């Protein structure tokens, strides 16, 4: 007999005893036994209310009939009944008490069911809310395992089907060592099985409430994992579409950008070859200079494409070593000296010699790209400014001009691939809009920052920092 049964039995005895005492007092006061019987009926109803199930109410009814017969019916202190009216009274009392007890127990049962349903609905709502804000497979599974343990005390282990990853909260859970009882449940998504959850419990049987809770959690894990799969599938589709768009733009840009300088090179070289003995030396020199400029531009384009490919594949390697700032600037200016030959370029460098830990070749490429942009998007009369100075623990490089500046509508996305000063995708001038995206990737890889804005001279300003 468990503790609750003992408690209910004690309550039953006390209520019946109290009903008997009250009835005996009423008898001495001269109250009729018909009224006294109502005391026992109230006692039966009270037993039904303070206990659970039909059993205790039925026992209270039987005890009340026997006590009433023994004390209040003639002959008293015996269980014999001579009067037909007493037999009828006791019979109706017994039937009434049984019916009342049954109805009360049924109402109690319905109230308990309603309360359980409310708790279940509240619990389901709580579980749903907890899972709705969680992202990531691992976080979803760990949340489910923690929820099961906190509400049922059962340890659990989840194995995902697609990766065979296993998650558990307690390191002691091991199939080869665990001697606890085990319940296996499948975690299902919309179209397929997503995994399996193993529940470990020490009792012989898992309670129905706990099993229901575990199944609810397993269902929510499945729904949340399905949501993650759908999100990743959509994200992969979006990335693939973006990759295709970039690939198309790259191919279109390469076709456009290669054709223009190659046409100029072929045309100029053809003129030189056909008229080498007829043209003045100055004209030949100008044509060769044009060929050189176009070749330099092609070389820069190829370098940008290679760097963009390395960045896209995550293979951009930074080989840092101490480089003198003056040497980096001189190297970049030397590379595009042909493009800058007829431009006013003002260079401002620190007075002292400053060395910075960088990949010199890549930083030179950044400066070449920024200077090339300044040449492309400004008139020949505009001045280009290259300033380098120290600010706190950083070296700041600024490339500015006094041209028309940058279209304000594309300031936030100017470092995206295939975006130019004008905001057009693969602009009409020579240039695929790769240079600035490459600059940002290189500077970020060095732990610096690059920004775009308006220069004090009224044109465009590109500034990047490198840590000392």
Automatic annotation (TrEMBL):
Superkingdom in the source lineage: Bacteria
Membrane-topology annotation of the record: Multi-pass membrane protein
Keyword Phosphoprotein: yes
CC annotations in GO: plasma membrane
Record's catalysed reaction(s): ATP + protein L-histidine = ADP + protein N-phospho-L-histidine
Keywords: ATP-binding, Kinase, Membrane, Nucleotide-binding, Phosphoprotein, Transferase, Transmembrane, Transmembrane helix, Two-component regulatory system
Main subcellular location of this protein, as a coarse class: membrane
Transmembrane segment boundaries: 6-26, 38-67
Key word Nucleotide-binding present: yes
One Pfam family cited in the UniProt record for this chain: HATPase_c
Residues covered by the Histidine kinase domain: 253-468
Compartments in which it is found: Membrane
GO molecular function: ATP binding; phosphorelay sensor kinase activity
EC number: 2.7.13.3
Name recorded for this polypeptide: histidine kinase
Organism listed in the record: Clostridium butyricum
């Amino acid at each position: 007999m468990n503790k609750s049964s003992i408690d209910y039995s004690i309550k039953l005895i006390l209520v019946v005893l109290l009903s008997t005492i009250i009835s005996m007092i009423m008898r001495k006061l001269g109250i009729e036994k018909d009224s006294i019987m109502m005391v026992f009926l109230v006692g039966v109803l009270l037993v039904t209310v303070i206990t659970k199930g039909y059993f205790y109410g039925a026992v209270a009814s039987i005890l009340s009939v026997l006590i009433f017969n023994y004390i209040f019916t003639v002959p008293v202190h015996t269980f014999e009944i001579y009067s037909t009216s007493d037999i009828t009274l006791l019979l109706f009392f017994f039937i009434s008490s049984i019916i009342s007890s049954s109805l009360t127990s049924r109402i109690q049962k319905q109230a308990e069911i309603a309360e359980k349903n409310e708790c279940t609905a509240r619990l389901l709502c709580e579980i749903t809310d907890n899972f709705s804000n969680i992202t990531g497979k691992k976080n979803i599974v760990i949340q489910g395992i923690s929820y099961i343990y906190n509400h049922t005390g059962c340890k659990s282990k989840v194995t995902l089907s697609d990766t065979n990853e296993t998650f558990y909260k307690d390191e002691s859970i091991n199939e080869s060592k665990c001697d606890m009882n085990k319940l296996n449940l499948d975690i299902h998504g919309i179209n397929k099985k997503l995994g399996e959850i193993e529940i470990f419990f020490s009792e012989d049987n898992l309670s129905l409430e706990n099993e229901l809770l575990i199944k609810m959690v397993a269902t929510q894990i499945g729904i949340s994992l399905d949501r993650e799969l759908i999100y990743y599938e959509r994200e992969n589709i979006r990335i693939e579409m973006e990759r295709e768009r970039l690939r198309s733009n790259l191919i279109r840009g390469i076709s456009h950008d290669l054709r223009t300088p190659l046409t100029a090179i072929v045309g100029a070289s053809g003129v030189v070859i056909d008229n080498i003995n007829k043209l003045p030396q100055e004209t030949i020199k100008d044509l060769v200079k044009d060929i050189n400029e176009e070749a330099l531009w092609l070389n820069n384009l190829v370098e940008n494409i290679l760097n963009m490919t390395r960045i896209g594949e995550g293979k951009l390697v930074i080989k840092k070593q101490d480089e003198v700032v003056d040497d980096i600037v001189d190297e970049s200016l030397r590379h595009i000296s042909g493009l800058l030959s007829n431009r006013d370029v003002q260079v401002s460098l620190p007075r002292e010699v400053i060395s910075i830990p960088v990949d010199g070749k890549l930083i030179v490429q950044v400066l070449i790209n920024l200077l090339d942009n300044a040449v492309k998007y400004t008139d020949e009369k505009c001045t280009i400014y290259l300033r380098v100075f120290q600010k706190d623990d950083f070296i700041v490089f600024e490339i500015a001009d006094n041209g028309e500046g940058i279209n304000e509508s594309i300031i936030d996305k100017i470092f995206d691939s295939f975006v130019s000063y004008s905001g057009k995708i693969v602009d009409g001038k020579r240039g695929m809009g790769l240079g600035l995206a490459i600059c940002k990737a290189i500077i970020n890889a060095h732990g610096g920052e690059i920004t775009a804005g308006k220069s004090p001279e009224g044109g465009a300003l590109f500034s990047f920092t490198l840590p000392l």
